[in-house]
Every structure is written in structure tokens, then in C-alpha cells.
Amino acid sequence: MAESKKADGNQKRLPRRNFLAGGGAAIAAGALSVYSPKEAEAASVSYPASTGYIVYDSRLCLGCQSCMFACSMTHEGEANPSLSRIQIIRDAPSFTKYPYDIVMSVCRQCVSPLCVQNCPTGACHVDEANGNVRRIDQSKCIGCKSCINACPQRPHRTIWDPVKNKSTKCDLCADAPFWSKKGGPAGSQACVETCAVKALKLVKETPSQTDVSGYDVNLAPPPKASPKMAPKPPAKKEGA
Amino acid sequence: MAYGYAGKILKLDLTKKEISSIPTEKYADYGGGVGMGAAIFWDLAVEPGDWDLQDAFDPRNVISLMSGPLAATGVPGGGRTSVSAIAPETFPTPLFHRTSFGGRFATMLKLAGWDGVVVQGKSARPVWINIVNDKVTIEDAKELWGLNTYETQGRILSMVGERTRFGEEWHPIGDTYTTMRPQIVCIGPVGESMTRVAALIHGSGVSARTGGFGGVFGSKNLKAISVIGTGSIRVADPKAIVDTRIEHARNSSRAAPMGGGIPASCMPCVNADRTRGSYYGGESMCADQFWFMGDQMKGADVAMRWGICTWATKFGGAMENKVPNAPALFKGRVPMEPGMGWYIKYLYELGVLGPGKKIDSHPLPMDQWGQLSFREAFCDAIARKIGIGADLAEGTLEAAKKWGRLEEDLNSGALRFPAYGASWHHSLPGVDWAYSYIFMSGDPMWHGFMGVGGGGGFGGPATYTAEQLVEMMAAKTVPFTGDPLMFSNCWKGEEARKTGIYSAHKAKMVAWARRYSGFYNESMSICEMMLPNFMGRSASGISGPSPDLEYRYYTAVMGNKHSFADTIEAGRKIWNMERAIRVMAGRDRDKEQFTPFMYMPGATFMSLGAKPIYVDGKWSFEDQADLYLDKAGVEEFKTHFYRLEGWGEKTGWPTRKTLEGLGMKKVADTMAAKGRLGA
Fold first, then answer.
1. Which chain A residues in 120-139 lie under 8 Å from chain B, judged by CB atoms?
2. Of the residues A209, B299, B621, B670, which has the maximum number of CB atoms within 10 A of its CB?
3. Is A95 in Cβ contact with B154 (below 8 Å)?
4. What is the pLDDT of residues A148-180, one digit of tens each?
5. Largest alpha-carbon pair distance within chain A?
6. Is B148 inside any structural domain?
């Protein structure tokens, strides 16, 4: 719940220091974000911004998790939500009322990526050949989980693969061996394409990094004007 | 293990407290879902021969909750859970029945490494089952017994893996992680007390309704099954699944009454959550619609919490159908969904049911019939079997029988239950639906052929001719291709017997429906509200994507070399396994009968568009709101159908030749030993 501004009416106000100027350390979602020296260090390192970002609409999402299956299928060739780079978390059974019942956990391709900054081997890197998407080179990953521990989001967007003992993360489908289309920031993404209600979208402009509102945006199509849209007649009495 | 399967089925004997597994491969010929459930039921409940299969609450009853191989693969609608067992809800005796529910239980079960759960025996005290990947435990349910279904699920969630607020963290399970929550199926108080109208409830609005399987859980002292898993399902062609799915989404044209048709799936399910929309095919649409109409949609919450079957206890609704020549009882109009709730109101208005009346309504506040307070009292009375609740707990027809009204109200049409105590639902004018009622154990719940009519089956003018329609359909229905007459719904005169609804042609349509749905919907567990989709609405023609689309999904997951015809033949095998169980439990030709109202004007359910008919050598569309059946015609049809299926014409029992031709020699031997093989 901490991730979504829309979804958390009790979100704690962040200390002003978390909204660092100068590229804005990617400290988004309130309650669990704790200022650390790492963040200050990250803020001082400059990385070229990704040329693509996935934004989403947590009010539009139906929680079907199609995107999760598409992600693991196209990247791993098997269906496993735990290996999906995007996590759609439903309070199912739905005891929490709309719109607080779904948390969309999508990698933000942070402007100041702590996962990249903290990787000791360079496995987690900015891929300049693929629109600067932040991704993990599996051949260099030593499974130290530094990127997971460094991710300021909750739940963390870097993913642990317990079979390979390596980390992985969203690459905007730049390297999705089971994806028929061209991926990466200049291409298309399996999760976006699979979403039945278009609650995910790839954008080129860097979303605001200060909180979640840059990513959790209104993607609902404008209502269609219809001559049939007249006031409803009074409901008939049940059982009549 | 083959692609698409987790590889093993969890088997629980609650009497012995034994937890074991069955290799899924043993039942691979039956696909999954109901097919596997039926085959397992045969092996565990029929084959031993120590039980007459008459009592649904007998500890020897075996209840299966099965997934299909398409679950947990991202195939849209492929994640339904099929449930089968001897069902307490059917009338006049419990019958082998199957139903299913959506949501995400089956998917999570597979991610935990299990293709299904089979439960037999009876625990000495209340228990719940906790499945965390490979680790399965039988837990004490003392603290859960008596709680409603929401409380039960909430309590289990707090016990299984929840150490932070949902959505905040990855949770470790062994050396794996998940952000997901356990998926739970459970019963409420209506199931605990072994009523015959109890559902299995999953989440806030999903239920396995027909059959009364909540009572079977109750009889086993089984309160709930919870599962969470972090594993993988291997598929043959991941690219093809994702590509097909995207193509499907773009080209979907399912003729859904409320403009639906977006293919997602049961985990994924586009109808995922009551809080995010309740509509046709959705988690709770039917509960909402038939338990409470209009602005009282909270009625579904009442039903879900108590765990009552909203289908068996339907209150009817505001919707009525104008039916030509309907019985005087209905004054030319019949209510949309009359069930138990509607029936007691009918008797109340008749003056025979009420406080102090011949049928004492205590403790029901009949003057509050239309209100939430009444629905709460209704569930409470049934759950605790207080006053009239004790009668209603046995089901509508049993209650009517006890009150001495069964014959009169069946004959007047007030009790609209076409067969085996299953309530009225699309049973006519599409006779494939009606016939399935008597050959199965009630409502087939299969809308596949509903759209095959003028205007896509849901009203509106047809933009195609009846001849174009039936020719298109005749090319799809392998192995009965080339016989468009199977789609003629002519119901009058000699033509009805020659080429219409009582003919050998119509037998092919019914057989195909059962084989297709038995394989793709009930065993591959694809949501039948999504596929099949026969009718297209694109500029390119009237042909929809079925059955090619579902076959593409099947091959992409399974990677085998089966042809589409092979899958329909597998459906025939599943159909015959169900048949064999029913025959061993006492089914024969004489028992396959409709109740009287199906032979009366007004028998037709809501008429959704015109049906194609063939009369005097010509095809046309006909509005059939006034269709009803002819008893002699139905008997003729039964003979045609048994002949087509390779069942004895006098008994309706499968012959040895039929069973052995399907690789079911062992089944034939068991049936022969009991003198139940057809000739």
C-alpha cells in the first residue's frame, strides 16, 4: 500500500529532505522510505535518463495479473508470478475497498537508480544501447542482492530468482527471449500489450520522481458521448 | 511431466489424516478438471464397490477440486477450478455433479505444485487444509468453525504468511518469494450444518454454486483449503501463448449482453473483483442479479458470507418475460429466475405459507421479504435449521414434497425446475441446453450455442441469413461437419421429428456440445463465458474465432500432436466416464425426464434472438418465445441420442463396445459385474 498515493489515504508525509533536488533521488513512496547516505551518494551521481517509462493507473487496473504472466512468460519462458518484474498485488479476497485494494508495483527506471549505483560488479547497469534502460546483465550478477537491498521502493522492484540465484529487473522487454516483438524503450512491452484494460502505458517523458503521482496516472479513456445516456428510470420494485 | 501440468494431485483422507499424492500423468487421458475428477472418483468411490453412491454426506464421497493444464499459464479464462462429487442438492436423490468457480484458487494450486485436491473421508473434528508449496498440513479449525466466509478467510490470511500490510513486501516461502496472498476456498455456517443448498466460497464473490458442495465440505468437517505457491508451470510455446492472447484481445467479439468480451483470464480474470465491477460473467453478477435486484446489491454480500448457494435459493428478480400463452398463474408473464426465494413468496401470496399458516413461516419475517433483513433471517434459519429453515435446508423440491405441494406445483408450472431439482435457466428455446439438463444432473451452465441465432443470439436484427449461419457452424463442429440440420430448431409438426429438435440431426448438436464443453470448458477449465465464441462481428464475416482459438491455446501450452478432432474425442471419453458414474449410481432411460412445465406453454426461458429453422426445404429465423416440448418427441430424441452415443437404446447405458473403443475396458468390466452395460 505504501507505493500508491491514490491507494493510501493515510500516507505519511515525507520529510522534506527526501525530495532531494538535483535529479531527485528516487525515493518515492512514503512510509518505508528512509534517508540514507547511499541516497545522498546516488543523488550526486549522474546517469543518463531512460528514454522509456511504464506508467500505470491503479484505478483502472482490474487486478487480473495478465501482465505478470506475460512478463514471466516472455522473459523466462515459463509462468511464474514470483519471477515477474511487474507485481500487481491484490487484497484478495477483497476486504479492502476500491481503490485501495490493488497495489501496482512497477519498476520506475529511476533517474538516479540506486540498484545501479550499488551493484558491485556492474551487472546492474544503464544500457545505453537500449535507450538507457536500467537492466541487469545476468552473466555479471553474483547474487549479492545489493540491488534488491538498495531499491527504495516497497516492495522492491528488483526481483530475486531463487533457481538461478541471481537478481533481475524490468528491462522494458529489451531482452525478452520469448517476446515476438522488438522490446526496449523504443519498442513494445509484453505487460503493456497484454493489459486488457490499458492500465499500463509506455511514456517517453520522465515522470516526476518526487512521489508516486508521476507514475500512477489517469489512463482512463474519455467517456464516449452517447444519445442513450439519459437519466435512469426509477428502479423497479424487486420481485414485481 | 507433460507441459501444462504441475505433475501431482494432492490426496487427503480426513478419516485417517493421511496426506498423499497421485501422479497427474495417471489421468492425463482425461485432460484435467472434471475429466480427471470423474476418473479419480471412479477409482476411489465406484471401483471399490462398497458404496451405493446415494448419500452425498457419506464419508466415502470423494470431492475433487481440479485445475486444468491451461491454468497458471496466462491463457485467458483458463484458471477455473472444477468441482465434482456426489452432490446433495440434486432431486430426488443425490447425483454425480460437477460445477466450477473462477478466481485464482486453481492457479495458485498449480503454482504450489498441485494439479488438484481430492478429499475423502471425514475428520473427527473441524479442520482446514494449509498448502504452502509442497508442505501440506491438516490444521485444527476449532477457531474457524461458526465464522462466516469473510471472517474465515481473514483469519486464515492472518495465520499464513502475513507479517506486513498487503502490498508492502515480498514474503519469503522457503528460499522463494512472493507478493501474493494465499487463496482460500471455504464454507460458511450454511455448509457447516450440512444443508443441501450450501456453496463453496472463494474470495469475496466467487462461489462454486450448483450441487450444494458446501454441504459436502461440512459433512467432512472441512472448513477451508488455503494455498499459496511460488513455483512455475512449463509450457510448450510461451511465445505462441502471449501472441495468441494479444491477438485474441484485439479481435474478441464475444456477444455478451453487457458488451463484455475482453479476454483476460481467471488469474488473470478480467472479472477479477467485485469492487472493480460486477457484470455479466463476473464474480458475483449472478449472485447480485438473482438474489437482489436494483439498488439492493448488498444481497450478494449476505449470501457470500453465509455461504449459501444463490442459484438454488434464487429470489427471482424484477425482470419478467412476456411469454405467449403462459399459464394463468403468471398472467402472461413469467419471472426471470424463480427459485426457492421466489417460491416461498408465491406460497405466501397464495395464503398457504405465513405465520401460523399451514406452512408456518417462522422465523422468517415474510413482511420484509424484499429487504436485506429478510435475507439474513433466511440464511440464519437455513444454517441453523430453525422452523421453516429446516425444510428449506433440504432444497426447494424436498420442502415442497414435505409440504404436500410437489405434484400440484410441478404440474401448475409454479415449480420451474426442469430436471433433478435444478432451477430454470436458458433451458429453452435452445434445446441443446434443455436436453443436457436430463442427460447430466441439471443445469449444464454452457452458453456456447446461445449466440448461434439471429442477431448473435442476444437480440437485434440479423445481418446474415439463417442458411449462412448454419453452414458456417456446420464447418466448425468436427466430427459432425457437413450437417447443418443439426442447428435447425424447428419444433412443430413432422419436420421437428425429421430434421428439427427431435431428430437424429439434433442429437449431433447435443453430443458435440457435451464433448466440446467436457474437454475445453470443464477439463481444460476455460471460462465458458469467454470461449467458445462462434459468432464474429467483423467485416470479414460472421465466423468467430472458435474453435480454432481454444485449440491454439491448447497446443501452445501442451505441445502435443493431438488434432482438434482428438480433443473432441477426449471430450467424448470424459462424457462417457461421467455417464458410467451416473449409471452405476442408478441412472437409466426412465429417470431422464423433464418436469411437467417443460411440456407446457410458457416453458421457454428468456428468448434471446431468433433461432434458425428448416421447414419445407428452406431456412429461416424464427422467434421461439412460445416454444415448449412434446413428450413423445423427447422420447424419440432420447433414442436418437443414445444410438449416436453408443448407449443402449432401452437403458441409456454405455455398451461394452463404446467403452472399449474409448480405452475404458476396466470401466466396462466393473459395469458388467453390476449388470449395467448397455446392449
1. none
2. B299
3. yes
4. 999 999 999 999 999 999 999 999 999 999 999
5. 73
6. yes
User: How far apart are the C-alpha atoms of A152 and B427, rounded to whole Å?
Assistant: 57
- pLDDT tier at A22 (50, 70, 90 boundaries)? very low
Q: What's the CA gap between B218 and B196, in Å, rounded? A: 10
Q: What pLDDT score was predicted for residue B186?
A: 97
CB-CB under 8 Å, A238 with B370: yes
Rounded Cα distance, B367 and B354, in Å: 9
DSSP string, B5-71: --SEEEEEETTTTEEEEEEGGGGGGG-SHHHHHHHHHIIIIITT----S--TTSTT--EEEE--TTT
Choosing among B149, B177, B226, B553, which should be mutated to test the A contact, i.e. which has the most A CBs within 10 A? B177
- Residue A63 contacts B where some CB pair is shorter than 8 Å: yes
Which residues constitute the domain of residue A137? Answer: 24-212
Cβ atoms B248, A42 nearer than 8 A:
no
Closest-CA residue in chain B for A179? B239
Residue B266 has pLDDT above 60, yes or no: no
Better pLDDT: A149 or A12 = A149
CB contact under 8 A, A155 and B269: no
Q: B486-541 pLDDT, tens per residue?
A: 999 999 999 999 999 999 999 999 999 999 999 999 999 998 888 898 887 655 67
Cell numbers placing B193: 450444518
Closest CA to A111 of A2, A224, A24, A214: A24
> Which residues have C-beta within 8 Å of that of residue B333, sequence separation ≥ 6?
B320, B321, B322, B323, B326
Residue B234 CA, chain-centre distance (Å), reads: 28
**Residue B491 corresponds to which cell in the numbers above?**
419444433
Instruction: State the residue range of the domain holding B648.
Output: 431-673
Domain count of the fold of chain A = 1
In a domain, A74, yes or no: yes
pLDDT of B85 above 60: yes
Chain B interface disruption, residue of A57, A58, A69, most B CBs within 10 A: A69
**Model ipTM value:** 0.91
Q: Using the beta-carbon criterion (under 8 Å), do A1 and B166 form an inter-chain contact?
A: yes
CATH of the domain at A29: 3.30.70.20
Chain A neighbors of B292, CB-CB under 8 A: 238
